[in-house]
Design a protein that fits this description.
By secondary structure, this protein is an alpha+beta fold. The chain has helices at about 1-5, 25-30, 35-45; strands at about 60-65, 70-80. The longest helix has 12 residues, at about 35-45.
Length: about 90
């Protein structure tokens, strides 16, 4: 928030998104971010069921073209880890 107001003028009722928005068929193809998934679960079930990510969780992302061929950046795989910077 601090960076957003530093670099642009925000008016009351400004909405700041938490990630990429899903398509209208999110129930069939999935959601784009955990915050959005939580909102969908709250609307559908009254409670958020998927946990936030935790240290040690693994993330794998792969984009594919419509014909199924590999996308422009290949596979990205990472493990959620604590920052080495001490506060």
């Amino acid at each position: 928030m601090a960076h957003a107001v530093y670099s642009r003028e925000l008016v009351p009722d400004t909405v700041i998104g938490s990630g990429t928005a899903s398509s209208e068929s999110y129930r069939e193809v999935g959601s784009s971010c955990i915050a959005e998934r939580h909102a969908i679960e709250l609307m559908d079930e009254g409670v958020a069921r998927n946990p936030h990510m935790a240290f040690g969780d693994k993330v794998r992302m792969e984009a594919r073209l419509e014909d199924g061929l590999p996308g422009p950046f290949g596979v990205v795989q990472q493990t959620v880890a604590r920052s080495p910077v001490q506060s």
